[in-house]
Design goal:
This protein has about 400 residues and is α/β, with parallel strands linked by helices. The chain is built from 13 helices and 14 strands. The strands form 3 sheets. The chain has a 7-stranded mixed sheet, with helices on both faces. Strands 1-13-14-12-11 form a 5-stranded mixed sheet, sandwiched between helices. A two-stranded antiparallel sheet has the order 6-7. The structure holds pyridoxal-5'-phosphate.
Length: about 400
C-alpha cells in the first residue's frame, strides 16, 4: 500500500463518513451498562430515535447490523409458514426475500425491473385477490440502495387500506432514515427497520426497529423462534433506559451526539433539504456527463445516492478501480445483476457542497482517465446549480 496524502473520499452509500465530533463522543471509557449513568444515555437515544422515525411508539436498538433488524421485524410478528408479500426493487429487497425464505416463511414476490420503486397498485391488487388473508405482511425497501430508487410509502399504505387487508406493513429505511422524508406514524407503518451506518452518520453496529401498535399486538401471537431479537425481552428494560444484554455502549455515545446534530442543531427538515439539494446537483452532473441515471421515474429519485449507468462496453468496476487508485475515492459498486453495469455515488449523511464537488471532480477525472466516453460538463453543471449561477 502506497502512502496517500489527505483524506480518503468514502462516497459509497453506506457506511458513510462519520463526523469527527461523533468519533470523539465515542472516545470514552466503557461504562457499566447496569449502572445509573447508562440509563440516562439509554433513554436519551431511545427518545431521540423516536423523533427521527417520527413515531410516538416504541423503538428498539440492537447491537447488530441492518440485516439483523430485518430478521427482528419478521421473527417478532410472524409464525412459521406465514406468507409475506415482497416487492423486488433491487439487491436489498432480494436479500430480505432470501432471509424470509431461510426463516421458513412463504414469499409472494412482485417482480420488478431494478429501476423502479414498489408499485402500490400491484400491492393493492395482490391483497385484494387474497380473500382469505393468507398474506401476513407486506415488505418494502424505502430507499433501494442498489439502484438509487425511493419507493413512495404513503401510496402503499393507501392501497393496503383500500384493499381492506389486515397485513402488516414493514419498511426498510436503512439508507433513507434522516436522509429522505420518512413518517412511521403518519404513513401507518407497522415496523420500520434502520441501521446506524448510513444517514445516521455512525459507524456500523446498530440495528433499529420502530414498532407500531398493530405490530406489538401481532407479536403476542407470533410463533417464530426468537430470543436475541425478541422485542418482549427488550421493551421492559428499555422503559428505564436499560438493555437485556450488553448494548454497544460506545456507539450509543456516538448516536447521542449524532442526534444532537440532526435534531437540535441542523434540524431534521433542514438535513432532508440538504440531501435533496446535493442529490439534485449530482443528477445535473450525471446529465452533464451525458450518462444515464438508473432510476427511471423522477418522482422516485433517491436523495441518498445516485446510480449511474455505464455506456455499453464499459465496465463500472474498471472505472471505480481507476478512481480509487488515482484519486483515492471509493464509489459504490453495482450489486447483484447490476455488477459492472452501474456505479453508485453516495451523497448521504455527513456531507456538504464541497465534499460533493470533490466527489464529482473525482468521477469526472476518473471518466477521462479510464477512457469512458463522456462530456466534461458535469462538475460545471453541479457548480452552477449549487451556486445559483445560471447555466448558460
Ligand atoms: C445497507 C443496507 C442493508 C443491509 O444493512 P447491513 O447493515 O449491511 O446488514 C439493507 N437494506 C438497505 C436498504 C441497505 O441500504
Amino acid at each position: 500500500m502506497s502512502f496517500r496524502g489527505g483524506r480518503h473520499f468514502l462516497q459509497i452509500p453506506g457506511p458513510t463518513n462519520v463526523p469527527d465530533r461523533v468519533l470523539r463522543a465515542m472516545d470514552m471509557p466503557t461504562m457499566d451498562h447496569r449502572g445509573p449513568d447508562f440509563a440516562v444515555l439509554g433513554r436519551q437515544v431511545l427518545d431521540g430515535m423516536k423523533r427521527v422515525f417520527r413515531t410516538e411508539g416504541a423503538v428498539v436498538i440492537y447491537p447488530g447490523s441492518g440485516t439483523g433488524a430485518w430478521e427482528a421485524a419478521l421473527v417478532n410478528t410472524l409464525s412459521p409458514g406465514d406468507r409475506v408479500l415482497m416487492c423486488e426493487t433491487g439487491q436489498f429487497s432480494t436479500l430480505w426475500t432470501q432471509l424470509a425464505k431461510r426463516l421458513g416463511l412463504e414469499v409472494d414476490l412482485i417482480a420488478g425491473d431494478w429501476r423502479s420503486g414498489a408499485d402500490a397498485d400491484a400491492i393493492g391488487a395482490r391483497l385484494a385477490a387474497d380473500k382469505g388473508h393468507a398474506i401476513k405482511a407486506v415488505c418494502v425497501v424505502h430507499n433501494e440502495t442498489s439502484t438509487g430508487v425511493t419507493s413512495r410509502i404513503a401510496p402503499v399504505r393507501k392501497a393496503m387500506d383500500a384493499a381492506g387487508h389486515p397485513a402488516l406493513l414493514m419498511v426498510d429505511t436503512i439508507s433513507s432514515l434522516a436522509s429522505i422524508d420518512y413518517r412511521h406514524d403518519e404513513w401507518g407503518v407497522d415496523v420500520t427497520i434502520a441501521g446506524s451506518q448510513k444517514g445516521l452518520m455512525l459507524p456500523p453496529g446498530l440495528g433499529f426497529n420502530a414498532i407500531g401498535a398493530r405490530a406489538l399486538k401481532a407479536a403476542e401471537s407470533s410463533r417464530m423462534p426468537k430470543s436475541y431479537w425478541a422485542w418482549s425481552e427488550m421493551l421492559g428494560p428499555n422503559e428505564k433506559g436499560y438493555f437485556p444484554y450488553t448494548p454497544a455502549t460506545n456507539i450509543l455515545y456516538g448516536l447521542r451526539e449524532a442526534l444532537v446534530m440532526l435534531l437540535d442543531e441542523e434540524g431534521l427538515d433542514n438535513a432532508l433539504a440538504r440531501h435533496d439539494r446535493l442529490a439534485e446537483a449530482t443528477r445535473r452532473a450525471v446529465r452533464g456527463w451525458g450518462l444515464e441515471i438508473l432510476c427511471r421515474n423522477e418522482a422516485e429519485y433517491s436523495a441518498s445516492l445516485t446510480a449511474v449507468t455505464m455506456p455499453a462496453g464499459h465496465d463500472a468496476d474498471a472505472l471505480r478501480k481507476v478512481i480509487l487508485e488515482k484519486f483515492d475515492m471509493s464509489l459504490g459498486a453495482g450489486l447483484g445483476r447490476l455488477a459492472g453495469k452501474v456505479f453508485r455515488i453516495g451523497h448521504l449523511g455527513h456531507f456538504n457542497e464541497l465534499m460533493l464537488m470533490g466527489t464529482l471532480a473525482g468521477v469526472e477525472m476518473g471518466l477521462a482517465a479510464a477512457g469512458v466516453p463522456h462530456k466534461p460538463a458535469g462538475v460545471q453543471a453541479a457548480m452552477a446549480y449549487l451556486s445559483g449561477r445560471r447555466n448558460d
